[in-house]
Task: structure prediction
Amino acid sequence: MADRITIYPDEKLQKKLEKEAEKQERSLNNLILFIINSFFKKHGKK
Result:
């Protein structure tokens, strides 16, 4: 998803924002996995 990265004049600010974005992406992925897992638990395993 490189198209989302913008160049900021302040290098430190950019690094900080990239870290934030990564953190949010990870927690979103974790949330999705959690929902999928609990869905399968509710509806029985194969």
Q: What stands out?
A: The mean pLDDT is 84. DSSP finds one helix and no strands in the chain.
